[in-house]
Amino acid sequence: MTASLRALALLVGFYLMGAVLLALVGVADWLVFSLPWVTRSPYLVVTAVATSLALVVPILFGMFAFLLAGGRSAEEAGRPVTPREQPELWAEVLEAARAAGTRPPEEVLLTEDLNASVAERARLLGLLAGRRRLYLGVPLLAGLTVPRLRAVLAHEFGHFSNQDTRLAVVTMRGRAAVLHTVNAFRHTENGASVLVGRLYVRYAQLFLKVSQSTGRRQELAADQAAARRAGRATTAAALRRIAVLDAAFDHYIATYALMGTPVSALPPVGEFFGGFARMLAAHDPQALAALAAARRTPKPSPYDSHPPITERVALIEALPDDGVAEDPAAPPASSLLRDQGSLLGELEGSALSGDAWTMRRLDWPDLVMARAEADAVDWARPLLTAVRRSLRAGATREPGATVPHGPAAHAPAAVAVVTSPATPFTALSVPDPATRPEAGQPGLEDVLNALDDGLLWMEIADRMPKPAQASRLTGLSARNFIRPALWDALAGLLHLHLIAQGAAHPDTGWSGRPGLALPDAWETGFDAALDAAVADTPDTAPLRTLLALPPVRRPQSL
Prior knowledge:
Layout: H1 3-33, H2 36-39, H3 42-71, E1 79-81, H4 87-100, E2 107-111, E3 116-123, E4 128-137, H5 138-143, H6 146-161, H7 164-184, H8 191-230, H9 232-257, E5 265-266, H10 271-282, H11 285-294, H12 309-317, H13 340-351, E6 360-361, H14 364-396, H15 412-418, H16 444-452, H17 455-460, H18 475-501, E7 505-507, E8 515-517, H19 520-533, H20 541-547
Parallel strand pairs: 2-4, 5-6
Antiparallel strand pairs: 1-2, 3-4, 7-8
Helix pairs in contact: 1-3, 1-7, 1-8, 3-7, 3-8, 4-6, 6-8, 6-9, 7-8, 8-9, 9-10, 9-11, 9-12, 10-13, 14-18, 19-20
């Protein structure tokens, strides 16, 4: 039996299962109502009818749920591109279809996903050909070279040439439908629905397992077609690269594209996806591989229709040498696109939600700075609150009950610089009012004075927020638990001070992580100075030495 017939048989089997269940209920009703003593009792008649309806309704519900799910297989959203608009990309698509010996798609759509796929609006459950679509993710184009893209296209059109696309319509629609049906029963509570739902779950497991083997054979056959078209080495390299790009794109979205979410800001129009190419260009292959290696490997699903990448690469590399060398220095596939900025900006229209369009758009440096300020305020706020409460508590104690507070014990030279009008610590200057600390909070000088007065471990640390289980810690264990939070809070306060002075500038950090670029002396001595300030015996002298340095304005990093 061919794969198409197996898939069709499974779909027919679903309806047969529902029909058989309905027939069994009908036979049971006939047997029950054939008993004279049942028909003479209105109570038993009503009970039998109610029981039948309780079983028939969920059976019909499951059948219609399957029909509705199969009939509304939504087409993936994307930005269609025409041959006239993107002739270079379409030339590659047409050549790939010609090489595969199949007709090209009627439409090519660019999507926001790191993926490529084919679809065909086939008729009669996929047995008759229909309109074809090719979906290409712009992140994939940014991360693959042109030869590797040819391997991907050859893989996709390998499905067409193997007549897998019509089968895929049957298989994937069936997979979506049975999963939809199972989910429809998930929230049912009455006994009849639970019983019928279990039967559909058993069928879903059978269908997913059978369709998994069919899907895996499709993928391996398409890999063979890609190796014949683009070369063994290039195809294997494309598969390995896609695995790396998958982790890199997740990192990019979380670290860069969405970095401004806490401050209701997004990158410039076109840069939400366009920045991915910038990050890839700045990262060396080892750094990208490290992102993929650090990612937790998902547990293999027994129903996944795609074989593992490692297995696919191994099978490709086991093919005879075809003499076609891989060219890692080939131009990126995104070079096939014209007017990328406008194209990516239009793609954002379909990819971003309605709420995202209400956010302000900031250039990358401004976006990094806005996030850095917001983070610094969040880090500093618990420490400022703890210091304020500690100082108030000290002011309400009886004379002699607490350590005297004031700047008298501090180095005069450092204080002269710290408290000079050019560098006021007592009023944090944060440009965005929405990120200012609460009114009445102490300033940086107050915090340093409190540390020098011995309040860090006597008063302040106890007032820092901590989970309930940590409140039972005492002594060194308590200090080591809260010390990182104190370190971060003091770092945030210092960042705000340097931002206000104009001495800290945004660093987009395409090769690492976005953040603030500090003056050289601060970059060198920042960590050690903070370590000393939150030590068991706090010492603010290293910090005061850094604060006494004249502000150094650094150029912004784009």
